[in-house]
User: Fold this.
Amino acid sequence: MKYALLVYDNPGSWGSISTEQKRALHGEYHAVAAAPGMIGHYRVRQPQKTETVRVAEGQTVTAEEPSPARENLLAFYLFESDDHDSVLEVAARIPAARMGGAVEVWPLI
Assistant:
């Protein structure tokens, strides 16, 4: 089965860590990206570059901002595994999960 792992970041979590710690965290993200079963991964641009599109009463409305949220979408991974527990283990290795953010695991159709 294929899964999308949506990574949400708490923007304040990066401000208080050193350059060396940031390098180590980036290394952890790269290690997750190299995990067996990983199909692909992408980081998204900062929320200021996001646009939200809605259609209401036949009219398209575009807002140059993301939907309001406490956490920002940081990245997503595409993962394939027949073992759901292994997917959860990989998700738990993503640094955002322990740094005030979250990782959502979505089964794909």
Notes: The domain at 2-107 is CATH 3.30.70.1060 (Alpha-Beta Plaits). The mean pLDDT is 90.
